[in-house]
Specification:
Blueprint lengths: L7 H10 L7 H12 L3 H21 L5 E2 L6 E5 L3 H10 L5 E2 L10 E5 L3 H14 L2
Length: about 130
């Protein structure tokens, strides 16, 4: 699907050799699958919002951890010795993004993805261990 802008002669030439159907069967199947459940995106957004709120509240209870409010599927946190915490998490199979690459943030800032409840709990348990 799409459109073409061009010189009239070029468009006429392309029109003469184009397929009679502008969308193939795979594209039609993908469209049907995407258009099927119109409530799914809303439900998913609500689940992510709940998970984000729960994770933010739990992170805020950890000692020496600051959490900023977020409307996205990640949280900005500041921890003591961010590089060491990030390395310790990575050694335990948990990846968080360093955030000191963003203007105004320092080495203690990390970007934490909001995942499902079980994965968020693993992150929290591991952070508790690492921050001891």
């Amino acid at each position: 699907a799409g459109y073409l802008l061009g010189q009239a002669r070029l468009v006429e030439t392309l029109q003469a050799v184009r397929q009679p159907w502008g969308v193939n069967v795979l594209a039609c199947a993908a469209l049907a699958a995407c258009a099927g459940d119109r409530e799914a995106p809303r439900r998913l957004a609500e689940e992510v919002a709940r998970a984000r709120e729960d994770l933010a509240a739990a992170l805020a209870e950890l000692p020496r951890v600051r959490v900023w409010p977020s409307a996205a599927n990640f949280l900005l946190v500041r921890v003591p010795d961010g590089p060491a915490v990030r390395t310790a998490l990575l050694e335990r199979g948990i990846a968080v993004r360093r955030a000191d690459t963003f203007p105004g943030l320092g080495p203690g800032h990390l970007r934490v993805a909001v995942r499902g409840p079980a994965e968020n709990e693993v992150l929290l348990e591991t952070l508790r261990e690492v921050l001891r």
